[in-house]
Amino acid sequence: MVKFRFGRLWVIIGLICCLLAGCSENSRGNQILRVATEPAFPPFEFQGKGGELVGFSIDLMRAIADGSNFQVEFQSLPFDGIIPALQAKTIDAAISSMTITEERSKTVTFSRPYFKAGLAIAIRADHQNITGFDSLQNKKIAVQIGTTGAEKAKSLTGAQIRSFDSAPLALQELQNGNVDAVINDAPVTLYAINTGNLQGIKVIEQLLTEEFYGIATAKNSPYLSLINQGLTKILENGKYQQIYEKWFKSAPPTLPETLPFINKNTARLNSLSIFWQSLPTLLKGALGTLQLAFISGLFGLTIGSLIGIIRLSHIKSLRFLSRAYIDFWRGTPLLVQIFMIYFGLPAISQELGFTFTLNRLLAGVIALSLNSAAYIAEIVRGGIQSIEIGQSEAAKSLGLNPLQTMTYVIFPQAFRRMIPPLGNEFISLLKDTSLVAVIGFEELFRKGQLIVAENYRAFEVYAAVAIIYLCLTLISSQLFSRLEIWMNPIGKKDAKGKI
Ligand code: GLN
User: 31-116+213-248 and 119-209: same fold?
Assistant: First the structure.
């Protein structure tokens, strides 16, 4: 019996081993490499019409894999998340038009260069007074977070820099007239212009930098030599040239075999120093978060109360309209609403022939207030309906009109009951402010992303961000508890113990 059990155990262990082996090697015995890319950088890496990954880098990586006899499993990641993912070893390599820089080489190891690029300034075609890098001083510039373009923009004096999650969003910002220029990789901007996706935009001919892209791997990665071998092979056998010509319609330039700083090892700062170093910047971001939450909370409460009251109106069409408002703002994702307000409204207004731009704080406040108003309206409606009918009858018998009844009798009592759910709503709102980071507003989360884009220490920085959010929400929930005690007309002492 015991022997039989052991026999079965071996079978199970054998099966598990086979399964595990199957995960990393396929039937041909090839290795499978998890390769990350940010597919929002045409013509290098982007999604084709059917949603499949296409582009120069994608073809190149597949050719390298063929050359070195391994398989590729692509994974989409935001550009600023790639280096942290390599460090965490959740991916094996990344091909994402990543420029080989000295700073990055301290954290990851690059393959030999696979593409020669450079940064270019994009401006609106009707903008005459920007002629080169120096004329960008004191101007508004959009960049993609964590890129060499963002790094270059930082060296300008007096420039206002807005960072976006992807290059297309930064270019959209330029097209909408919210910024004066975008600093981005030249081939990407040119491709967007040439394909007609970006209209009314031109590129200043003089490139700002000469850069080389490399495939990034973790430090001491066992896959680096495999990738380099494959890359060298396709550079020599003409496959590289073929792929280059397919995407760029010209012959490729010669590439250097290596760069001076391609392999650099430096000492890492300890986690605590990173935590303390990032704290002042993060606290500044927390002020932005509070600003967003308070202003939106106030507007949300005002609009929400009105809609909540209208929802109880005797007039059917008003009830229908308030219901439709709630359904729309509660039934669509806040992220989509932010994009619609910030990018969508100016774009559609331009198409209709008038120019209108929104500042990021205002766009964030509008989206958050309108969204929270929908939830608050339901809280208000519930609160009012929870007040016994006898209260309004008593008010009526005292000769109060409906408005007076609502203002002096019903609403004050209902408000007290609404405080706990309103507290919940405010805490959700406080956390939802982090979504406004997508339009480049530098609140707490965005500040964290910007620090990680520079030092690649995701864990320490995001831990600090989480702790600050936690402090903010704990303080808010304390304040709401106090408000509840304070609003309780009888038995304040009693209430204190229960809240
Ligand atoms: N080449 C630029 C960089 O490495 C931008 C890359 C990208 O956005 N995919 O920073």
Answer: yes
